[in-house]
Amino acid sequence: MATQQQLIDLFGAGNITCLDVSDREVFKSAGIEAAELFDVGLPDRLTGMFSAEVVSDPETFDGVSASIGGTQVTLVTLGAPHSDSDLRYYLNPLDGQILLARLVAENVEIEVVNESLGNFIEFLYRIGRYKAFSKAADDSQQADYKDLLTAYLTTLDPGSLKESDNWWSMVIRQL
Prior knowledge:
It comes from Streptomyces chiangmaiensis. By secondary structure, the chain is an alpha+beta fold.
């Protein structure tokens, strides 16, 4: 899994957002396992697929009450696909899954995008590496790298790329 140093090397030292150590107890008392948010962090932005800096509520790391499968839960907001999106990435503390959701009362949409927070961060890191590599690569090199990337991510988190209309499947096609 990606480390904080790997994220810093790729995205830059001032472009990683972590929770403050003081929040660790709040998360622990709420039963939320999210060590990666303290120890690794999230990139502030990966163009076209992730932004920790959003222009409207809920903001990154806000708790959001939702009903999932008939169970009331407080989801942890991780960011959005882009800064002005009404979709949000959430950590579900009940099972550790990462959701991409629009939680509008009359039109709730939820998709599981990753089985764990670690996998989510790894996806962002690996796709970010691909994007950095592709700037100087020819079409053949990009295609080879994309094939390797897809195989790696599929092995890491099979459900995330299982269907052609899954979020990550669409992201990979657009690379």
